[in-house]
Amino acid sequence: MATTSEEPVDARVRRRLRELRTERGLTLQEVAERASIDISTLSRLEAGKRRLALDHIPALSAALGVSADELLASSLPQDPRVRMQPLTRDGLTMWPLTHRGPAAGLHAFKMDLSAERCTPPDVLPVHEGYDWLYVLDGSLRLLLGEEDLTIKPGEAVEFTTWTPHWFGAVDGPVELIAILGTQGERLHLHS
């Protein structure tokens, strides 16, 4: 939606609030808790069913990790190129291939697994969501519940992440493309 200078401030803030929350993959509940406001208040603010008060701005800005100016600003047309830095943790390097946009909370990554990522944890993680992996090069070991699978180049797997799972390298590095939900992204990079 294109914005104009005639857009009322309250409408712009409501739109920016939804945009920023969605970009960050946050739920209404998460933002409401961070801002110390009731979830129904936040929902009504976003929907325009409650007037935005000036005292909401600092708490909402902090909850979204932006300045008040960024929350009040008109959004600029976004450069379509994805230029985010790779993220590395536990032998796994992830290059974001999507912006944090409204893709139903799904994000695409190119992943490289080092040869050293070959030992699964004692307890396989479980979390909300769904993962999709496509192997480009190397052999991927996927532990999925009781199954121990080897995924070769050109093969794809998809699975619910409510099933205990882990993936690593078999006899050398692995290159793959992954589509993850926000919970999977957090697990692989921040836990």
UniProtKB/TrEMBL annotation:
Signal peptide: none annotated. One of its GO terms (molecular function) is DNA-binding transcription factor activity. Keywords: DNA-binding. Gene3D superfamilies: Jelly Rolls, lambda repressor-like DNA-binding domains. The keyword Chaperone does not apply. Residues 17-71 form the HTH cro/C1-type domain. It comes from the Bacteria. CDD domains: cupin_XRE_C (cd02209), HTH_XRE (cd00093). Pfam families: Cupin_2, HTH_3. GO terms for cellular component: cytosol. This is Transcriptional regulator SCO1200, Xre-family with cupin domain.
